[in-house]
Amino acid sequence: MAEAVKYIDIGKRYGNNIIFTGINLVLNEGDALAVLGPSGSGKTTLLKITGLITPPSEGKLIIYGNDTTGLSNKHLSKLRKIYIGYSFQEPTFMSGLNVLENILLPLYPYLDPHDLRNVKEKAKEMLDELGLKGLEKRMPSSLSTGQRKRVDLARALIKDPKILIVDEPTANLDEESANIIREIIKKLITSNKTVIYAIHMDKKLEEMANKKIKILQYK
Ligand code: ADP
Ligand code: MG
User: Fold this and answer.
1) Would you call 216 helix, strand, or coil by DSSP?
2) For the chain: N or C, fewer Cβ within 10 A?
3) Distance 46 CA to ligand 1 centre (A)
4) The ligand 1 atom nearest the CA atom of 15
5) Separation of alpha carbons 60 and 55, rounded Å
6) Which residues is 196 bridged to in the sheet?
């Protein structure tokens, strides 16, 4: 069983503000980690560290055997490209690009023009699976919160990443959108991906996780 993510004594502070310290955990393929804790406790911070967006202040983060400590931005973005899909708490999209174009955007730097047809098909299948059939030409700004969250998930999944990180997958969503997202996450876990998500109020997602971290307010 491959080790996807290893946190060794991970800590984070902003100035004098200690967010958390001493996180030690290994995530294997097929593991689902729920990051729990009240608002402002540091859930997004831990996800951003895991997604190589923010460096930890202390400790080491290992992604598939790669020690990420002190790596250049170029090297970090290469690791992100190979291993990580990230769906933000509040997704933003490129204005002027429609849903399909936004989903395909992460692929463009590497895309062989001959593959364009295939990836477009793949993106459409993904939209279908996410209950967004027929919305590919819409502008993201014209969609509901739940639809935007699902489009963001499609964008994170288009590279078929081994590690999927989702910040508050179902927060403030209607039950239909939330259920579709839970089903996708369940499917990823059973297909041996490593899924990491922050939640503050979703018992169903909490139960789906086999590992949990609860971040407390550090005082
Ligand atoms: P959560 O996702 O659990 O609501 P966050 O990880 O977003 O919490 O934030 C945890 C704490 O870190 C908060 O007190 C927040 O103000 C602080 N914080 C987050 N990002 C930064 C930053 N870039 N600079 C300074 N403080 C930050
Ligand atoms: Mg957050």
Assistant:
1) coil
2) C
3) 10
4) 25
5) 9
6) 33, 165
Contacts of 151 (CB under 8 A, 6+ apart): 91, 93, 99, 102, 103, 127, 130, 132, 135, 140, 143
- pLDDT tens per residue, range 152-170: 999 999 999 999 999 999 9
Whether residue 40 has its Cβ less than 6 Å from ligand 1? yes
Residues 6+ apart with CB under 8 A from 26: 3, 5, 6, 7
Q: How confident is the model over 1-16, as a mean pLDDT?
A: 95
Helices (H), the chain: 43-50, 73-83, 99-104, 116-129, 145-157, 175-190, 203-208
Is 16 near ligand 1, meaning CB less than 6 Å away?
no
Does this model's pTM top 0.90? My answer is: yes
**219 pLDDT exceeds 70?**
no
